[in-house]
Amino acid sequence: MPFKPKPQPNINMTDVASGRQFKLSHETREMQKPPEKIKKHDSGKYKDSKPNVTHQVDILSIPKARQRDIRLTGADKERFGGQEKVKAKLALIVQDVGTRKLDIKWIPNKTATATADALKQIYKEGTLKRPTFRLMSDKGNE
């Protein structure tokens, strides 16, 4: 609901000239205050333009309607306990903030060991090089 000040009595020039005091409402006094200075704030977006400085990591949960059977090989097969085919439910996504390159690895669950193994495998394959400054992620509680 928009802010609506309370109606004030009509004030004419004769009343002001006579020096009568008028009580102003709280809303009117607030409206008469000068606006606060707008402070420059951090927008929260990282503007790293150099490659391999910052990487952003997140775990993506795939909706049930979009899940597909995928064939696993190599280290992915070892992570899933030697299975040949598996339903893809979770994916670890790593993106280079500067170049927007990304790599995706399927993970069996959200445990720290599965995530760390997938992250090691991404950097081992060489699509992305290890970041020189930071590896960002969210709190992981959603």
Number of helices: 4
Q: Which percent range fits the helix content?
A: 10-25%
Q: Summarize model confidence as the mean pLDDT.
A: 77
In total, the number of strands is: 6
Describe the sheet with the most strands.
4 strands, mixed
Distance between the termini: 31 Å
**What order do the strands of the largest sheet run in, or round the barrel if closed?**
5-4-1-6
Flag low-confidence runs.
none
Name the structural class. alpha+beta
Q: Work out the radius of gyration.
A: 30 Å
Shape: elongated
- Along the chain, the helix and strand elements come as HHEEHEEEHE
> Into which percentage range does the β-strand content fall?
15-25%
Describe the protein in words.
This protein is α+β, with helices and mostly antiparallel strands and 142 residues long. It contains four helices and six strands, in the order ααββαβββαβ. The strands form two sheets. A four-stranded mixed sheet has the order 5-4-1-6, covered by helices on one side. Strands 2-3 form a two-stranded antiparallel sheet. It is elongated and about 95 Å long. It starts with 12 loop residues before the first helix and ends in a 5-residue tail after the last strand. The mean pLDDT is 77.
